[in-house]
Amino acid sequence: MKKHNLQLASLSVLSAILMSLPFLVPHLGFFSLFGLVPLLCMERIASINGIKKVWMWHYGTFVLWNALTTFWVCNATVAGGIFAILANSLQMSLVFGLFRFSKKYLKGALPYIFLAVTWIAWERAYYGAQISWPWLVLGNSFAGSPSCVQWYEYTGTLGGSLWIWAANLGLFGIMTALSDGSWNAYNKPAKFSAIAGYAVILAGPLILSEIIYMKYEETDDPLAVTIVQPNIDPYSKFEFLSQQQQNVILLDQMKEALKSGYKNDTTGKPLLVVAPETFTSDIITNDFNESRTYRRFVAFLKDYPNTNLLFGASSHEFIYGTKAPSYTARKYSDGIWVESHNSAMITDGTGRGDIYHKTKLVVGAEMTPYPALFCKIDNMLGGVMGRDIGQKNITLLHCRSYNADGSVKRSIPVGTAVCYESVYGEYCTGYIKAGAEALTIITNDAWWGDTPGYRQHLRYASLRAIETRRDIARCGNTGISAIIDQRGDILKKSGWWKQDIIKGDINLNSKMTFFVLEGDITGKICTFMFLLLFLAVIVRVFVPEKR
User: Fold this and answer.
1) What is the pLDDT of residue 234?
2) Same domain, yes or no, for 210 and 325?
């Protein structure tokens, strides 16, 4: 028994390490193509030897994998970080446990097919859940290797999850045949077919990606951008800096960046300046001009015609009434309630403004899930959870230039993912469907410190660029800010934890990819297959197979 326990422990740890490496080190995505094999071997050894409580081993594998890759969440919230690790691991373990249960009723390769489609169906469902943490979706393993997954423009990230499962199960199948002696019973054509099939699974997507990468031509329709990284520590900025002082820091950087002047090109395109998430907290959605920060920005931009400033804001809407207008509203004073948002805004010297409210909100820190229940509990606890609310439909921000008479000369629609939203691939296609010709991401990753978190978040932006074939201007408060092209390559990037300015162009594009048009086909098909196989398992449970 001790020998078996040592084997199970070794295989569990090995699998967790192999699956963590792609998320921790760029260009190591290929480890995920065989990283689940030790876990499958562990399960096989346990099943053959009749070992009990196998759930402890696979749950331990997932806990270690989650801890190694997302431990940095604890830098922002210890309780939230521990909960995210344990809860996410539990869901992975439940999927694996369902696979082990299916082996009692499904024969041959069917349980392993069931495992793959169940996992991907869970990943798809997880994207849409109110309590959602899809950071470790398997397809994200290749975020640091965008040249390997150019076909994500067709399948999205879950296509990568399917590839990973197919590669792992193919290798595991060959290893199993070799270990139990069934390989010797195969004739030469069967052996050749098995090896050739595995080789196609392994190399086919890489070859296809390389072909797409080499043939893809970036659209040549540049929009000038300036990304301003103010590097303000979010843990202490309100203790040592007033909002006015923070405004001075940002405006001084902008003045430095714009001192050489800017002239419209022949197409009349404006200049887009991008500042980070939650830069200010004094935006009132009922009237932007009530904000001193907003008025200061507009006054500054009057000296720079056709320059647009896109920035993040913690915004508030005041609602008048005797009763709370919603579960999420907080009481401001007698007869006045306030609703909060994490917003992206754009303005220019004319004083006009567009606003978009972040919809994919971080549970606990920003939003209270299932507010009808948990807001009541939160009220009893003194209001410790975030109450931000998003908007129902995606809207765009517009970067504009003007004629001499003040009429709009050019208006360029831009989609803005606020921080965590950039993890959600199918959600981000909504910006493109709404007409976005480029994407921006504004974020504040400083909460996590100098850990793998902000680097992982940056790399995920490359996947959004591939899926949508849109250039991305990414601004982080403390880094890393970047310009990313339509192939997912990072063209320019800033340093970490330093004031910085990036100047360059992003190319506009109005074409839509297959993934944008059709959505997550991989996830939909796997969900359908999961339902069919799960139904087959249920039937076998109640209608035993005849002997």
Assistant:
1) 87
2) no
CA angle 154, 468, 417 (to 5 degrees): 135
- 163 shares a domain with 270: no
The model's pTM is 0.94
The pLDDT value recorded for residue 310 is 98
Residue 15's closest CA among 67, 58, 77, 72? 58
Average pLDDT, the chain: 93
Half-sphere exposure of 322 (CA within 13 A, CB side): 0
* SS3 (DSSP) at 200: helix
Task: Determine the pLDDT at residue 185.
Answer: 82
Q: Quick check: is 108 in a domain?
A: yes
Look up the domain containing 198 and give its range: 2-217+525-542
Can you tell me the distance from the alpha carbon of 325 to that of 208, in angstroms, rounded to the nearest whole number?
53
Residues 449 and 319 in one domain: yes
Pair 206, 329 in one domain: no
What's the sign of the alpha-carbon dihedral 283, 286, 288, 292?
negative
**Non-local CB neighbours of 349 within 8 Å, separated by 6+ positions:** 298, 301, 302, 303, 304, 305, 307
**Gap between the Cα atoms of 107 and 377, Å rounded:** 47
For 73-84, the pLDDT digits (tens) are 999 889 889 999
Residues 206 and 234 in one domain: no
Judge whether 504 and 494 are in contact, CB under 8 Å: no
What is the band of 444 on the pLDDT scale with cuts at 50, 70, 90?
Answer: very high
Of 482, 483, 487, 508, the C-alpha closest to 220 is 508
8 Å CB contact between 183 and 503:
no
Under a CB-based contact definition with an 8 Å cutoff, are residues 105 and 541 in contact? yes
| CATH, residue 318 | 3.60.110.10
Encode 169-196 in three state secondary structure.
HHHHHHHHHHHCCHHHHCCHHHHHHHHH
In angstroms, the Cα distances linking 128 to 122, 132, 329, 467, 481 are: 10, 7, 24, 18, 28
Pairing of β 490-493 and β 500-507: unpaired
> Does the pLDDT value for residue 261 go beyond 60?
no
DSSP string, 273-328: EE--TT-EEEEETT-GGG-HHHHHHHHHHTTSTTEEEEEEEEEEEEEE-SS-SSSS
Among 346, 279, 347, 343, smallest CA distance to 317 is for 343
Residue 517 lies in a domain: no
Mean pLDDT along residues 323-336:
88
Helices (H), 406-542: 425-433, 452-468, 514-518, 521-542
The separation between CA 325 and the C-alpha centre of its own chain, rounded to angstroms, equals 32
Q: Which residues pair with 273 in a beta bridge?
A: 226, 309
- Please indicate, yes or no, whether residues 260 and 197 belong to a single structural domain of this protein: no
Could you tell me if 224 and 271 are in contact, meaning their C-beta atoms sit under 8 angstroms apart?
yes
What is the number of structural domains in the chain? 2
What are 366's two structure tokens? 């920003």
User: Would 59 be classed as within a structural domain?
Assistant: yes
Return d(Cα 518, Cα 467) in angstroms, integer: 12
Residues 393 and 506 in one domain: yes
Query: Do 246 and 121 share a structural domain?
Result: no
